[in-house]
Amino acid sequence: MQNLAIKVLFDGLNLQRLFGGLLVTAGIAFTSIIIGSLLGILFGIIRTSKSKFVRFISRLYLELFRIIPILVWLFIVYFGVTTALNLQLSGEVVSVVVFSLWGAAEMGDIVRGALESLPKHQIESGKALGLSFWGLYRYILIPQAIRRMLPGAINLATRMVKTTSLVVLIGVIDVIKIGQQIIELSRFKVPAASFWVYGFIFILYFIICYPLSRLSKKLEAKWQN
Amino acid sequence: MENNEVLIEINDLHKEYTHKKILNGINLDIHKGEVVVILGPSGCGKSTLLRCLNGLETIQGGNIKFSGKNLTDKNVNWQEVRQKIGMVFQSYDLFPHMTVIENILLGPTKVQKRSKDEALKQAEELLDKVGLLDRKDSYPRELSGGQKQRIAIVRALCMNPEIMLFDEVTASLDPEMVREVLEVILGLAKQGMTMVIVTHEMNFAKSVADKIVFIDEGKICELAEPDEFFSNPKTERAKQFLNIFEY
């Protein structure tokens, strides 16, 4: 019966449930990527500040996310902050908050690197045209920086998609949790279920992440010259 | 000068970088319609002086007045002032992610909020004048150095500035491209544009300038009409400087 184990994927509502779980995973990941990118651009601009104090604080923020594991952040916010402040937040909301803040920290560093790599006379010739601070960033610096930071940003996005697998630990029913439930339920009927279910999840993650890396390659080639 | 109105008035200008004096008490009036060429050895502060005029450098003493307005005031609106002071730099400074026409229209449409049609019309006329109308949809990377520099001039002109500053705009060009850029500047001089030009092209300086300002060690050493300066420089320093250019 081993060769029929793949059927476990199509039993009852299993397939539908797995896709539902995928939506939760992708929803958390992409919401966080979008919020994180927008905040990250702002954070990156702040990190190029000349003020030593601003640089120190923003550096500290980045290092806090680099040093402390994301899982610990999820626990701190989900169990710690919510109780301390007496807030009722769902696991999904906490996940989006933590992943967005993490994304902003990492994206900010990528944006800073790209901005600082732009030639100084681009800023001066923009200023000489009478552009305001924000105009300078909007029309001159950010569009050029985006081209330079794309590989790093896409890499970050795929890392974020993959790291969402941790949200199961704060009670979010994501694609992995649903996979586990299906495996539990069919433990006696289909002993090989874990191979097929996890195999299927493997492919689902690939389907989300692969287009991202293709996209980055395409845009890089387009902007190369 | 046929026109005596003073456009820029520089009084006792001082500029230093961490205790190194760059400009040490510059006094200079620039009249409307006048072409002032600044000469001097490398590191004498001539580019710095130009950059002070549109606020790219902070100054440590003295003041600069533009159309009677004091540019050393704390609350001076540089975005407004810079629209009236066009500047072209030594490095080709076009924005690489925009086409030629996008480069030119950025200031007029986004800063001056002019209508796109009207700005486009002016941009095309200016491009035509410098012989580059057919390159308006090219990207800067597709242009030669001389073409890029002519576009940079058009970009500054399309803002309808009252004065143009040229900071060694031919210094990084191949020799055969210098002429096409200088001719554009010469054309502007004939139209009566007020200009301050920093250059190392002595023959060009001689033919374009109404007034030569020779700077050394952060001070104006000599201020003279071009014929007089080149044929009969008064200071020893200027004589030495001019000798270097004669082989």
Would you mind describing this structure in some detail?
The complex is a heterodimer of chains A (225) and B (247). With 225 residues, chain A is mostly helical. Chain A has a single domain (2-223), classed as MetI-like (MetI-like fold, Orthogonal Bundle), CATH 1.10.3720. Chain A contains 8 helices and no strands. In chain A, helix 6 runs antiparallel to helix 8 (193-223). Chain A is elongated and about 75 Å long. With 247 residues, chain B is of the alpha/beta class. Chain B has one domain (6-244): Rossmann fold (3-Layer(aba) Sandwich). Chain B contains 9 helices and 10 strands. Chain B has helices at residues 46-53, 78-84, 100-111, 116-129, 145-157, 175-190, 202-208, 226-231, 236-244; strands at residues 6-17, 20-31, 35-39, 61-66, 69-70, 85-88, 163-167, 194-198, 211-216, 219-224. In chain B, helix 3 packs across helix 4 (116-129), helix 3 (100-111) packs parallel to helix 5 and helix 5 (145-157) packs parallel to helix 6 (175-190). The A-B interface holds A 119, 121-122, 124-132, 135, 139-140, 143-144, 147, 225 and B 54-56, 78-80, 82-83, 85-87, 89, 91, 93-97, 106-107, 110-112, 141, 152, 155-156, 159.
Topology:
The complex is a heterodimer of chains A (225) and B (247).
Chain A: H1 14-47, H2 52-67, H3 70-84, H4 91-117, H5 120-128, H6 133-163, H7 175-185, H8 193-223
Helix pairs in contact in A: 1-4, 1-6, 1-7, 2-4, 3-4, 4-6, 5-6, 6-8, 7-8
Chain B: E1 6-17, E2 20-31, E3 35-39, H1 46-53, E4 61-66, E5 69-70, H2 78-84, E6 85-88, H3 100-111, H4 116-129, H5 145-157, E7 163-167, H6 175-190, E8 194-198, H7 202-208, E9 211-216, E10 219-224, H8 226-231, H9 236-244
Parallel strand pairs in B: 3-8, 3-9, 6-7, 7-8
Antiparallel strand pairs in B: 1-2, 1-4, 4-5, 9-10
Helix pairs in contact in B: 3-4, 3-5, 5-6
